TrEMBL record:
<protein>
    <submittedName>
        <fullName>ZF(MYND)-8 zinc finger protein</fullName>
    </submittedName>
</protein>
<keyword id="KW-0862">Zinc</keyword>
<dbReference type="Pfam" id="PF01753">
    <property type="entry name" value="zf-MYND"/>
</dbReference>
<dbReference type="GO" id="GO:0008270">
    <property type="term" value="F:zinc ion binding"/>
</dbReference>
<keyword id="KW-0863">Zinc-finger</keyword>
<dbReference type="InterPro" id="IPR002893">
    <property type="entry name" value="Znf_MYND"/>
</dbReference>
<feature type="domain" description="MYND-type">
    <location>
        <begin position="19"/>
        <end position="57"/>
    </location>
</feature>
<keyword id="KW-0479">Metal-binding</keyword>
<keyword id="KW-0732">Signal</keyword>
<feature type="signal peptide">
    <location>
        <begin position="1"/>
        <end position="23"/>
    </location>
</feature>
Amino acid sequence: MKNTCSNFCLVCFAISMSCSVCGLTDRCMKRCVQCKAVIYCSKSCQIKDWTVHKLKCTKKEKDSFLDKKNNMQSQNQPVKLFIKHNHEKHCVLIPQTLLNPKCILNIISEELLIPLDSLNLIAKGKVVNEDNVSDIVFRMKIRQFMAVGEAQESEKGMHIGDIDTIVEQLNVDRNKAIRGLKHCGGNLIDALLYVGDSL
């Protein structure tokens, strides 16, 4: 039954919220799952009415449109991966359209500042690599990871030529050269002596 007056009133609302079979108005009413237009007080009333109702029961087009829209939106939303590294939790966004495993690992590598060749990912006790990363992220829908690997030191404010000089002269990795320059306030000669002494 529909509201009989043009303005919303509690009497008309109560009538419209009564059971389609017995007319009972209860605090907890049930709707037809498919059309959402008919209300029942119990499962037994729904079963009694089904022979008549099934002839006119159809899924609402509006709902199916909304379902499709929501499904499309969820497909376009990036996947959030939570990666723990050095006692910090990083949130990395991976586009759902990205299927290339190398690109997925590159995004994680860039976000964590860990070179790809020294990045080790673990998810649910499994080592994650190029062969299984797409499967783990998109099919198994695992979102929690642990990363192992030395993060790259920030080169911000450093002269790249100074870093390269320390790496070539002392045959050390780039991170060690950057830490040496930071420790010595950017002074190349002091950094060469400092890093050389630590070898």
